């Protein structure tokens, strides 16, 4: 075990002390800072679009002139000729011609440049609201009565369960919080796999087929070397997650008194977050990272040069991307889909999909346990197979591609078993 920990420590310290690790830690916060500063700069320097409004119905013109938003304001123009002149002189950014036909408002917006889809949608909403007011006035309804008619209905979901006597119990619905946790776990899992699969493959492939490897294997076994490198990189990933946890905790303590943060956390309690669902989500995430890391290590052991690892880990990338897309798109929109139900039991994919199904409460705990046990068993079987594959090909140099190296390694493994 001493040699195993020496290898693990060497790989861990080499990666943690590297500039790339520091950059990897800082990049998310730098990006958040850039987005925040860009948003503030755009908000402070954005100009309100001035839109001329022209209509034969004076009530329409007067109502629109009273509309003031952060994105645009209306000002009346006497004619299309005046509107066109002011638009050409850049006194206004656009002009709106509103006509009334059969109690229906029709607006035509003229502009040299697009005002943006969000602005056009807001203008359409203003016209829709104005049309409702005009029809209400014709029917003799007050603005308060119109508002009451447009009041949306309320719908809440109650989670129910039945005891042994078929008596129904009403509980609290936590699916919203659970879905947010599973969504975040899926994204984090995908990012970690993409980031560290390349690092793991390079670590495994870096000394393969060299004189240095012969010296290393004279003092330890290939399996210990394989497990040591794999553990070292996984500890680097764990360190990164721990640092993010500390930074987020400190940041939360600093900003928890802000109104924006209060509005987010006021409806969230620890009882909703901490529970069986969270632990299952973390277990699927942990073993998902582990099984993809082992697969990346296996792919790395099949290449002859560290430069070839980018091509070698393509199976890892595509498999991870498939699970990510299935979980976030199909799993979120239709968690009872037959494809989602089947793939939630398939190792690699289950790490992405089962937490989504569990968050939507479309699967029982027995099924979750079965999926988790299958994932754990396959992970350790793949780890054992990869370590033995590494033992067989660690000193082998093959001119063929990945598939040729795999066949050669399997052949060597079979021959070694026959000899033993």
TrEMBL record:
One of its GO terms (cellular component) is plasma membrane. The keyword Cell membrane applies. It is a multi-pass membrane protein. The chain crosses the membrane at residues 21-39, 183-205, 226-252, 277-300, 312-332, 338-356, 368-387. Residues 20-385 form the ABC-2 type transporter transmembrane domain. It is found in: Cell membrane. GO terms for molecular function: ABC-type transporter activity. Its main location: membrane. Keywords: Cell membrane, Membrane, Transmembrane, Transmembrane helix. It comes from the Bacteria. Pfam families: ABC2_membrane_3 (PF12698). Gene3D superfamilies: Periplasmic binding protein-like II (3.40.190.10). PANTHER family: MEMBRANE COMPONENT OF ABC TRANSPORTER YHHJ-RELATED, MULTIDRUG ABC TRANSPORTER PERMEASE YBHS-RELATED. This is ABC-2 type transporter transmembrane domain-containing protein. It comes from Enterococcus hirae (strain ATCC 9790 / DSM 20160 / JCM 8729 / LMG 6399 / NBRC 3181 / NCIMB 6459 / NCDO 1258 / NCTC 12367 / WDCM 00089 / R).
């Amino acid at each position: 075990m001493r040699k195993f920990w020496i290898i693990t420590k060497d790989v861990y310290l080499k990666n943690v002390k590297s500039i790339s690790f520091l950059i990897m830690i800082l990049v998310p916060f730098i990006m958040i800072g850039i987005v925040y500063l860009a948003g503030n700069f755009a908000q402070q320097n954005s100009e309100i679009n001035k839109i001329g409004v022209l209509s034969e119905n004076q009530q329409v013109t007067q109502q629109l002139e009273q509309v003031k938003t952060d994105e645009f304001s209306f000002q009346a123009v006497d004619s299309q000729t005046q509107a066109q002149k002011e638009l050409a002189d850049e006194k206004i950014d656009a002009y709106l011609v509103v006509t009334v036909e059969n109690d229906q408002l029709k607006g035509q917006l003229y502009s040299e440049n697009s005002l943006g889809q969000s602005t056009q949608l807001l203008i359409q909403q203003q016209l829709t609201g104005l049309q409702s007011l005009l029809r209400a006035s014709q029917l003799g309804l007050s603005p308060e009565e119109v508002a009451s008619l447009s009041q949306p209905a309320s719908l809440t979901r109650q989670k129910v369960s039945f005891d042994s006597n078929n008596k129904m119990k009403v509980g609290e619905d936590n699916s919203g919080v659970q879905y947010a946790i599973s969504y975040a776990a899926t994204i984090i899992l995908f990012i970690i796999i993409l980031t560290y699969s390349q690092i793991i493959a390079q670590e495994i492939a870096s000394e393969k087929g060299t004189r240095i490897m012969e010296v290393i294997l004279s003092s330890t076994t290939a399996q210990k070397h394989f497990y040591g490198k794999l553990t070292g990189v996984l500890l680097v990933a764990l360190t990164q997650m721990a640092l993010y946890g500390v930074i987020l905790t400190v940041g939360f303590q600093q900003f928890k008194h802000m109104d924006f943060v209060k509005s987010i956390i006021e409806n969230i309690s620890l009882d909703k977050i901490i529970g069986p669902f969270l632990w299952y989500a973390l277990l699927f995430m942990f073993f998902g990272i582990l099984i993809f890391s082992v697969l990346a290590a296996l792919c790395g052991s099949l290449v002859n040069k560290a430069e070839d690892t980018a091509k070698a880990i393509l199976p890892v990338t595509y498999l991870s991307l498939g699970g990510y897309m299935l979980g976030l798109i199909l799993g979120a929109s239709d968690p009872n889909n037959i494809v989602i139900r089947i793939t939630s039991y398939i190792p690699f994919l289950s790490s992405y999909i089962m937490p989504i199904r569990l968050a939507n409460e479309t699967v029982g705990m027995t099924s979750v346990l079965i999926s988790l046990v299958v994932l754990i068993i396959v992970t350790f079987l793949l780890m054992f197979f990869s370590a033995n594959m590494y033992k067989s090909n660690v000193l082998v140099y093959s001119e063929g591609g990945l598939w040729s190296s795999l066949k050669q390694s399997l052949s060597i493994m079979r021959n070694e078993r026959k000899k033993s």
